[in-house]
Amino acid sequence: SWLPKMGSCTSTVQHAIPEPKLKDSGAELSSPGTDSFHADDEDPVFLVRQGVLGQRHPIDTPFGRRELVYADYTASGRFLTQLEDFFNDKIAPLYANTHTEASATGAQTTVLREEARLIIAQNVNAPANEYATLFVGTGCSGALEKMMKVFGISLPKYADNKWNLSDHIPEEERPVVFIGPFEHHSNELAWRESICTVEVIPEDKYGCPDLEVLEQLLIKHQNRSMKIGSFSAGSNVTGIRIDTRKYSRLLHKYNALAFFDFAGSGAYVAINVKGDSEEESMDGIYMSPHKFIGGPGCTGVLIAKRNLFDG
């Protein structure tokens, strides 16, 4: 596999589209998407690479006309021909509102949505009887905002500015949130704008959130009624991954919830939400499918334990 193995701190910096397998090891490669690839036409990696839209697209630059080289997969994925063709041929003709099954179109679209929910849950080992898989908002930002509303810890900015609501909440009664040193702003600003106390865990010598400091702060705040760890599973700047199992075990040891942001690494790593034990399980994850190849236009995805939801 071209994916890195899980370690205490490993790198996720990979080619968004790996090089295809070559029939002739001495063959020369040119720009992606050209016919000079001597690859197996049945190789799924090759087929995906060939299907990415926009490769070699001409653009005007200060240096003249050049072929497009896209290198921003940490921000957004690219459209995929196979998916766009499938959508236009199979989904769009029968598309309708999913709120009704009174028509053939509504029923068909509802079935497709539920199949998508099931496929995602199966691929991250999130059994439907234990975890809810929700399509929400835009990227991880929408997923996190949804979870904060579920917890009831969001604070309307207008109301807080007008009546200083947050000033009336005793510090010791606030939820406490632990975040890492390389969080995307969506996994930091939202917490800071809530009623939570935010603790930023510094880096250890490997560039990961320091587990010793995290444990010290968990002990310090052990009497808080709600404790949440919300860590980036992989930095979209350095490519550093954390071993989510270690953080889950430590957080659960002190009755804290373990949430992980897979915006940067979700397209490149295997995700095991349930884990091999309750101690290693994740209470929830946020994902940004628009960063996947073929993903532009997708909603955010929130997967969280059902016992966290009312009703």
UniProtKB/TrEMBL annotation:
Protease in keyword set: no
Pfam families: Aminotran_5
Top-level taxon: Eukaryota
Transmembrane segments: none
Alphabetical keyword list: Pyridoxal phosphate
Stretches assigned to the Aminotransferase class V domain: 69-308
Entries under InterPro entries matching the protein: Aminotrans_V_dom, PyrdxlP-dep_Trfase, PyrdxlP-dep_Trfase_major
Residue ranges, annotated region (Disordered): 1-40
Stated name of the protein: Aminotransferase class V domain-containing protein
